[in-house]
Amino acid sequence: MLPGFLIAQSFSVPNPSYAYWGNLNTNTASVHIPVTNNASINLDVIVEKTQNSLAGLHQSLFCFGIQCYDSSANSSAIISFAGDSTEILIADLNKNGTLGLSCVTYRIKDINNTSDFVDVEVCYHITPTGISTIPNTSTLSLPQPNPADRFAAVTYNLAGDNSEYTIAVYDILGSLVKQVKFSEKSGILLLPTAELNAGVYFCSLQVNNKTLGTNKLIVAH
Questions:
Q1: How far is CA 71 from CA 12, 33, 38, 55, 186, in A?
Q2: Which range marks the domain in which residue 15 is found?
Q3: CATH, residue 59
Q4: Do both 121 and 152 map to the same domain?
């Protein structure tokens, strides 16, 4: 089992819960969660959505695989989930001009074995500043999965009042091979790795040309 992953009989996710902090500058809050089928065979699965609490005009919607579902859907269609592979659950929230806290739980379940599932909860904290008052340091998780094939996900939680942050990926020789800029204070960032050569890389969290943290990433195809 990968370090830090929550694993069911067949499925695993990096964490059982995610916190998104944002403001009203954009309408959609989006959290990308890697879900891995650890079984060696294809499984027929569905994604079930439970809206634990929704503030005001908030609407929750999601995508899994190549299918997306609007706010009225509480379950996906049956999806063939390939064995030994990873798909992305995109858990979105339309803010619709509303501040407040909304929490949604997603269950990825084998329809032929309903006791085989994994749950993940996403809580969206929509505030005037979009900044969490809890953390006073910036953190960057280890990339997952690691080794990575098509992508790697990093979880971050940022302190301070900066408006733009960067995840920079360097190869073993110190050459910059990928750079992703973002502005949200916390969440999960998906790094495409399919085009990178197999090998060792380093992911650095940067702000104002200062590196706040670095973690190793291994790419294996």
A1: 25, 18, 29, 14, 23
A2: 6-126
A3: 2.60.40.2040
A4: no
Q: Look at residues 161, 152, 132, 138 and name the one whose alpha carbon lies nearest to residue 200.
A: 152
Pair (54, 163) in one structural domain: no
Alpha-carbon distance 131 to 20, whole Å? 10
On whether both 147 and 50 belong to a single domain, the answer is no
Tell me: do 57 and 78 sit in the same domain: yes
Q: What is the pLDDT along the chain (221 residues), one digit of tens a residue?
A: 344 444 458 998 877 888 787 888 889 998 888 899 999 999 999 999 998 889 989 999 999 988 999 999 999 999 999 998 888 899 999 999 998 889 999 999 999 999 999 999 888 888 776 654 434 456 778 788 888 898 888 888 776 666 678 888 888 777 889 888 888 777 888 888 999 999 888 888 887 767 677 778 889 98
Q: Give the global pTM.
A: 0.62
Tokens at residue 24, please? 């009203």
Residue 17 is assigned to a structural domain of this protein: yes
